[in-house]
Amino acid sequence: MGNRRGSRLITGLLAGGLCLLVLASLGCQTGGAGAYRPRRPWEAAGVGRLSQDAVVAVYTGPSDFLSLASHPEALAFAAPGRELNHIFVYFCNVQAGGRLSSPTSGLADARLAGAARWAQRRGVEVHLVVGGVGAGGTSLASPETRGRLKDAILELAAAAPRGVTGVQLCVEGLRPEGPAFEGLLELLGKVREKLPPQKKLGVAAPRWAWDGKESEWQWGQAALGRLGPADYVVVMNRDWGKALRKAEDYSCLTRDMVEALALTLGNRLVVGIPACAATPGHDPAVENPVAAAAGLLRAAEVGRIGGVAVHWYAPQDAGALSPAGWDALRAVITPRVTFAATFGGPASDCATGLQPAPDGGYVLAGWTDSRGSGSDDAWLIKTDAGGREVWSRTFGGAGSDGASAVAATRDGGCLLAGGTESSGSGGKDAWLIKTDPTGREVWSRTLGGAGKDWAYCALEAPDGGYLVAGYTESSGNGGSDAWLLRTDPAGNEVWSRTFGGPGWDWLNWVEPATDGGYILAGRTESFGAGDGDAWVIKIDTAGREAWSRTFGGPRDDRAWCVRPLAGGGCIVAGCTESTGAGGADAWLIKLDSSGKEVWSRTFGGPEDDEANSVQPTADGGYVVAGYTRSFGAGEADAWLISTDVNGRQIWSRTFGGTGEDRAWAVLVAADGGFVLAGETQSFGAGDGDAWLIKTDAAGRVFEGE
User: Which residues contact 158 (CB under 8 A, 6 or more apart)?
Assistant: First the structure.
């Protein structure tokens, strides 16, 4: 099922429209304080789960947008769970008689094409906004006017440069009744019919969508439900100048109103909040744009529902992208970074361990055949936050050596765990290497006897010593036994424990338990139901077993990684041949504090798929990394899966090419994205390269970064 040389025992936007943007309903008169919890009708409608995501969009004018050609770095923003991924450019207006004012004027500007391409590379959607549609409530009643508008809108969309995602109509002064409204519906239908499927069509609804009288509100809500041809519907706040008098005054849209709109529109809803805080002087009542910007995002944090988040709004060219506007955004949004980097030479190289570095970069551990002293050497790489190599170190001799894992130590250094054939007592010994913060060796220890021994995982204990997990053939009860060692701070053995029976047993992972002691994960052939079972053991701080559980069926199953959860339970990642869709499936198991199964989920298709690492996420769900042969581009692709709190898949992403590509470790990054370490044969310099991937919070890596 899995194969990790030198580290593991070898055994074989958005569906239908724009993402839900925007809500800041905390502080509304009818809403009350505290976090909003949707009622059952909302949940039953399938609009979306409670989300940690918040989307920041800019609604601006063409001159601001064109300035991206000169300052493209200005928009490279994101923060945990937030990203700037939509720009609405107020491009042209409807003149009297229903004519667009020079609909394609400015589209030939090289700056527009450059800014649109920049946005596309970063996953930012760009929508050209047509304003003045339906002004006065009369123009759309005329078939001739609608025909001219349709042709002009389609001309605008067709002439738009690559990177422009779609067109939005700002409907003004239009009541939800009568021939003008019916004309709007007809116009939308005809534009949608002729617009290419990949181009989105949006509508920014007028004020009746939320205006104060309850009868009008209900009337407007029903009318919005008829805007079927639109891919998304923007419901903006009541008044630009009155929307944000102070940081705590977020919106006159109430939670009940937004809930009703979401039930009507589903994932087509965009709730626009005018954030004139980005424009000092536009609204004199806003004295502190930085505080107001923070207030908007804070409101979304507390008041979000079902994926609804903040829409940063500034009218036309009022300065949303001005230095003052960006200063306001920078107060609450930090840079987004995504990349895919390879490390290695002409031979085979691999990264199997991953740790965050104190300076925001990353530390990778694995093995290299391209560098060092022997056939394989243990390898330690330090990168900066952008995935660029800062330094690398190799450790080893004439034999085959490698590192399986790396752990951070309190002094800023690292501890590598793996195995060596170049030194020690047997054909292969477990190996610990302690380094300083620059990766230089402080000490090295071999552990084992006359048989083969290996360390797959290690961590620093509270007293400064280390705990090491792996397997041993030098002692124990069978072919190999699961092996746990305790060392002092200098790496000298304090005690050793073996777990197992007559079969082949080993440990892949050790992690501190939230209720004391440690959780171990691995595989056993000595116990359980089949050829091999996933195995989870709880021990106390002295290495004495508190409980032991096996999971699996008649075929081969195993656990690669375990993480503790609040309340004493844990989440386990591995693979199973006994259940699922194919030869082997990625496997996620949640256990309670006594090791009893709470739920179990498999992921995969007809071929072999595997989960090698798991991390809890801020929203209570999980992110799982491994590889898949059932999906993707090549023989095997690196695989990233996001799940909800109950282990149900939200999305999955594959990374790779025509060769063998795998992810062995995953971290949740400080900006809410994910970092994967692994190996690739599809990219890089040689037979296989170490691979480091940084994604955004939705698991995406953007072209050119």
Answer: none
In 527-670, which ranges are E strands?
533-539, 545-551, 557-564, 570-576, 585-591, 597-603, 609-616, 622-628, 637-643, 649-655, 661-668
Q: What is the pLDDT of residues 554-610, one digit of tens each?
A: 999 999 999 999 888 999 999 999 999 888 999 999 999 999 999 999 999 999 999
Element of type H or E holding 86:
strand 82-95
Supply 186's token pair: 């007809």
Contact 134, 140 (CB under 8 A): yes
| Tokens standing for residue 310 | 């903040």
Close Cβ partners of 315 (under 8 Å, ≥ 6 residues apart)? 59, 90, 240, 274, 276, 282
pLDDT at 206: 62
Extract the tokens encoding 162. 């690559």
Note the pLDDT of residue 7: 34
What's the first-to-final CA gap in the chain, in angstroms? 33
Cα–Cα distance measured from residue 110 to residue 520, given in angstroms and rounded to the nearest whole number: 59
> Strand, coil or helix: what is 46?
coil
Query: To which residue do tokens 């349709």 refer?
Result: 150
Q: What is the pLDDT of residue 261?
A: 66
Alpha carbon distance 635, 660 (integer Å): 5
Tokens of 153: 């809108």
Q: How many CA atoms lie within 13 A of 515 on its CB side?
A: 13
Residue 158 or 314, more confident:
158
Confidence of residue 45 (pLDDT cuts 50, 70, 90): very low
Closest Cα partner for 649 from 663, 658, 639? 639
Q: What is the pLDDT of residues 608-648, one digit of tens each?
A: 999 999 999 988 899 999 999 999 987 999 999 999 999 99
**Which residue carries 């809890």 as its tokens?**
616
**Is residue 245's pLDDT more than 80?**
no
Q: Please, are residues 653 and 699 in contact by the beta-carbon 8 Å criterion?
A: yes
Residue that has been written with the tokens 């928009």 in this structure: 75
User: How far apart (Å, rounded) are the C-alpha atoms in residues 272 and 285?
Assistant: 20
Contact 86, 76 (CB under 8 A): no
Interatomic CA distance for residues 13 and 512, integer angstroms:
41
| SS3 assignment for 469-501 | EEEECCCCCCCEEEEEEEECCCCCEEEEEEECC
Please count the CA atoms within 13 angstroms of the CA of 76 that sit on its side-chain side.
Answer: 12
